[in-house]
Amino acid sequence: MGNSVTTIQEDAFHYCYALNNLTLSENLTYIGIDAFRDCKIEKVSFPKSLTTINSAFRSNEYLTEVTLPATITNISNWAFQYCNALKTIYSLNPTPPVCETFSFSVVLNVTSVYVPESSVSAYKNAPIWGDVFYSQIKAIPATETQVQLADEVEIYSLNSEIVIDKTSKNEVVKVFSTTGQLFYIKESTGEQIIIPALKNNIYIVKTATKTAKILI
C-alpha cells in the first residue's frame, strides 16, 4: 500500500480471502469498519499516524501477531473479534489504550502481550487488558531484533506535523518540497523531531540513512 493512502473505507477488502500479506500506509489516519474482515492476514503492524483501531480486522482467522504503535489510544468494539489464531500482541503505548468491552471478544489463544517494561502494572490493572490478558502481559524483551527495530529511523505524519524518531546525534535532517525547495534543515540531538507543516502538501524527508515521502 502506497504512503499516499490516508483512508481505507468500510468493507474495502471484506472477504478478500487471498489477502494474507499487508503493509499499511505510513500516513493512514482512518480504517473503516470491516475494512479487512474475513481476510487471511497473518500479521499487521499499524502505522504511527493512527490513533484508533476500529472493528476492521474481525474474523481474520489466520492473524497471529499485531503491533500497536505508541500513538494508539483507543481500540473499538470487535476490532479483533474471532481472531482465534492471534498469539502475540505488541502494544507500545506506555499508557494502555482504552478498549471497549468487546475489543478482543472471542480471542482465546493469546500467549504474550508485550508492553513497555515500566507499564506492565498499568496494563494489568487497565480495564479489558487486565481482564482478558492479565497473565499474558509482560515486558517487551530486549532481544537483538527489538534493538535493531529501535535503531531504525522512523518518519511519519501526525496532526499536520512531520515526526522524525530515532535519528542519531548530530545526524543532519533535511525536508524538501516536491519542487526541491529546502523547507527545513537541522542537526539532530538524538531526540524526537517535530516539524509543523502545511496541510495538503507532500514533503520529502532525508536523513543520513533514510529518505521518505510524507503527505500531510
Automatic annotation (TrEMBL):
Pfam families noted in UniProt: LRR_5 (PF13306)
UniProt-listed InterPro entries: LRR_5, LRR_dom_sf
Listed name of the protein: Secretion system C-terminal sorting domain-containing protein
Native source species: bioreactor metagenome
